[in-house]
Amino acid sequence: MNNGLFVGMVTLDLVYLTDQLPSSNQKIVASDYTVAAGGPATNAAVTFSYLGNPATIVGVVGNHPITELIRKDLATYRVGIVDLDSTIPEPPPVSSIMVTQGSGDRAVISLNATRIQVGSDQLPLDILSGIDVIMIDGHQMAVGQAIAQLAKSKKIAVVIDGGSWKSGFDTVLPFVDYAICSANFYPPGCNNTDEVISYLTAAGIPHIAITQGDKPIRYYSLGESGELPIPPITTVDTLGAGDVFHGAFCHYILEENFTSALIAATKVASRSCQFFGTRQWMQGNGELRIEN
């Protein structure tokens, strides 16, 4: 087993399955719904734990009554919590998500972590004790930068979830080993994937992957580049697929080389897209087995 630390946003996700999105002033009835803890780092931690590893999420949870739903969900999936400010009385960020039945497309309304930023002085001194891999989603940038810098000095693998460019990411990049980014990740001055890869390599990151939905993943690794195909599936829900991909990658990169870890993570994320919500794909199956 390997220990993973996941740094970033913790939300409560309310997810509804609908035939269509509502128009102005229209009320619709969902055919299904689910409630779970959410956020990129949080879902990645759940996936990492599901694959058989101790996982801990580092973020702000607080003490509002709603946070009990978050805590119970994460306890169910054996994810530990380092709460950076347990005194906050305000409710945590809540995301309302509608998934369109048939296409798997989703519409999301959420409040990110910009209102609950904390400083690195909130970190426990032994935060990296026993940790093998760290993933940072950029939603707690000061904390992420401090952890990444410390991890670099201890030769602990650092992964970033580059879902979108966030102010301050440039302070984290010098300490990153693996940048796993979406097609929507555009650092300053970048307008296409080639420019993004050039920007990240100039920052000193040795291993880079750009996911593009159901299109092939582009990767760059120690001077080698290429594309990796995405397996065709019948999509039910794409919510959290990128988060699942990151959590699975953190698991496999400790066992495989870069491209093999990407391929294995793709298979896990593709499986998650065949179920509604961010947890259903894990139900009743025991530990997921992936054949490379």
Q: Beta-sheet strand percentage?
A: 25-35%
Q: What name goes with the CATH superfamily?
A: Ribokinase
The overall pLDDT average reads 92
What is the general shape? Answer: globular
Low-confidence stretches: none
Instruction: Quickly name the level 1 CATH class.
Output: Alpha Beta
**Biggest beta sheet summary:** 9 strands, mixed
Structural class: alpha/beta
- Rg calc: 18 Å
> Helix content range of the residues, please?
25-40%
Give the ordered list of helices and strands: EEEHEHEEEEHEHEHEEEHH
What does this molecule look like?
The protein has 292 residues and is α/β, with parallel strands linked by helices. It has a single domain (4-23, 30-104, 130-280), classed as UDP-N-acetylmuramoyl-L-alanine:D-glutamate ligase. Helix content is 26%, strand content 25%. The protein has helices spanning 40-50, 67-76, 141-153, 169-172, 193-202, 241-252, 258-272; strands at residues 4-7, 11-18, 32-38, 55-59, 79-83, 94-100, 106-109, 133-136, 157-162, 178-182, 207-212, 215-221, 224-228. The strands form two sheets. The protein has a nine-stranded mixed β-sheet, with helices on both faces. It has a four-stranded mixed β-sheet with strand order 3-2-6-7. A hairpin with a 2-residue loop joins strand 12 and strand 13 (224-228). Helix 1 (40-50) crosses helix 6 and helix 6 runs antiparallel to helix 7. The chain is globular, with a radius of gyration of 18 Å. The mean pLDDT is 92.
